[in-house]
Structures are given as C-alpha cells and as structure tokens.
Design brief:
By secondary structure, this protein is of the alpha/beta class. About 45% of the residues lie in helices and about 15% in strands. A 5-stranded parallel sheet has the order 1-5-4-2-3.
Length: about 140
C-alpha cells in the first residue's frame, strides 16, 4: 500500500515538475527597448545603409519648411499621435528627430514604453543636421 502511494506521489511530482519546465522554457523572452542618442554623422551612416525608418516628429508647418530626405512626418503634438505612431512597425529600428532635441527626447521615452525595440534619437535635431552642412528637402 505504501509503495503504491509513494509511486503516485512521485508520479504526480514528476508531472508537475515537467509541466513547470515546459511552461517556463516556452515563455518568450521579453525584448527590451532601447533608446540611443546619436550624432549627425551616425544618423547619416544609418540612413545611407537604410537600416532605419526615419520619422520627423515636428509639426506639419515645420516639416514643410525642410526635412531630412526619406522622413515621414508624425507630429508628436498631434492629438492623434498615439494612433498614428501605433501604425509603425515596433520591431524595426526607428530614427526620430525634431527641431533641437527636446520633443524627440520625450517622444523616444514614450516609444520605449510603447514597446518599440530600437529607437535612435538625433542629438540636436534638424538644427544640428543643417548646422553640419547636411541637406534638407523643401
């Protein structure tokens, strides 16, 4: 009687342990978001290689005054910003910029919390981009 009871307990314990191992090993590792403040030169390199989706987070008026080639405009101050940015693939690297860096700092923090995997933030924004002699589209 005791050996049958010990066998049942051992079998139950083995079943619980096996199930626990499967559950814990099958859980996907949570991907950690990261934000990297980059220089104009680093942004230029990323754009030349084509590794990032470029987003200008300034207002449409600012954007129409000149933007970095290839940038799409998603205004960070737009009341629909969360909806608009949610349409961007969070698994791909994103590069953002604003006028001088203040808005992009707040935007990158938001995007990190929203689960974007890799965010590059242009230090000094488009002002620094132009100061270093890089072209803008008008």
């Amino acid at each position: 009687m005791f050996s049958a009871l010990k066998y049942m307990k051992a079998k139950s314990l083995l079943l619980v342990l096996s199930f626990s191992l499967v559950v814990f090993n099958c859980k996907q590792a949570k991907v950690e978001s990261s934000v990297e403040l980059i220089t104009v030169e680093e942004m230029d390199s990323l754009l030349k290689v084509g590794e990032v989706k470029l987003i200008d987070i300034r207002t449409p008026e600012e954007y129409n005054g000149g933007y970095i080639e290839g940038a799409i405009n998603i205004d960070f101050s737009d009341k629909n910003f969360e909806n608009l940015i949610s349409k961007v693939d969070r698994t791909k690297p994103i590069a953002i910029y604003c006028g001088r860096g203040g808005r992009s700092d707040r935007c990158s923090a938001y995007m990190k919390k929203a689960g974007f995997v890799k965010i590059y933030d242009l230090d000094g924004g488009i002002t620094e981009w132009k100061f270093k002699g890089n072209p803008v589209v008008k």
